[in-house]
Amino acid sequence: MTTSANGSFERTPLIAGNWKMNMDHLQAITLTQKLAWTLDDAKHDFARVEVAVFPPFTDLRGVQTLVAGDDLPLAYGGQDLSQFDSGAYTGDISGAFLAKLGCRYVLVGHSERRTVHGETDEVLAAKVKAAFRHGLVPVLCVGEGLEVRQAGTHVEHTLGQLRADVEGLTAEQATALVVAYEPVWAIGTGEVAGPGDAQEMCAAIRSELAELFGADAANATRLLYGGSVKANNAAAILAEKDVDGVLVGGASLDAAEFASIVRFESHTAA
Ligand SMILES: O=C[C@H](O)COP(=O)(O)O
């Protein structure tokens, strides 16, 4: 753990790239290699700023082989997991399989899972628990749609999702948890929430976690912002006190751009 410039608490910044349904297993190898080379050239210190990628399931074995074979300090994770451990759940992926592939993280409740796949908070709470059961760190995604933002109830709405999805966790689990605030209206649209918006929500999330799990746990939980993060807007967002990193979609498909975002956080955390 290193001390981030985001406050006096020790939270290792995390820059995460969600590839979504992009990159086949061959493209995944090329992208991972390019990212590793670029960060190595820049002498990136992975202990100070952690870097993780979230490839499609079909890429994970290839990424694992490359990371293990070349001893790369990159973390990786799945984009979803089943709330069940095994059985007749066609198309689902168990957290046990992800753990076996060396995943450190798993996304839970990305807005595309909530909207396209209709995942409810009840299901997501079960998925968060399944992640912990298999030794994976859930990156729980929460955030409001445009109508909610326009109605001015975005904080209440997002904290409602958070409360429902972390129900039943222990303080120890809350400490390990990563929460990504992703306003749906800013995802893939080019509309980025201002640094002040990101800070407002992350501060509200931290204070809600403090109420639920105590201040020590809340001060350890890493909070990310996601939604149209690019190399040209990352620095201002990453400078906010309660923002411990970013969850990057489109810009993580370009190794050079994603590496630039990592370097902004490295400078902020220096
Ligand atoms: O998981 C990533 C978010 O959905 C953000 O995606 P984006 O950077 O393409 O807007």
UniProtKB/TrEMBL annotation:
MF-aspect GO terms: isomerase activity
Biochemical pathway: Carbohydrate biosynthesis; gluconeogenesis; Carbohydrate degradation; glycolysis; D-glyceraldehyde 3-phosphate from glycerone phosphate: step 1/1
InterPro entries: Aldolase_TIM, TIM_sf, TrioseP_Isoase_bac/euk, Triosephosphate_isomerase, Triosephosphate_isomerase_AS
Active site: H110 (electrophile), E182 (proton acceptor)
CDD domains referenced in this protein's UniProt entry, alphabetically: TIM
Reaction(s) catalysed by this chain's protein: D-glyceraldehyde 3-phosphate = dihydroxyacetone phosphate
Family: Belongs to the triosephosphate isomerase family.
Function, as annotated: Involved in the gluconeogenesis. Catalyzes stereospecifically the conversion of dihydroxyacetone phosphate (DHAP) to D-glyceraldehyde-3-phosphate (G3P).
Annotated protein name in UniProt: Triosephosphate isomerase
Protein's organism: Sinomonas flava
Gene it is expressed from: tpiA
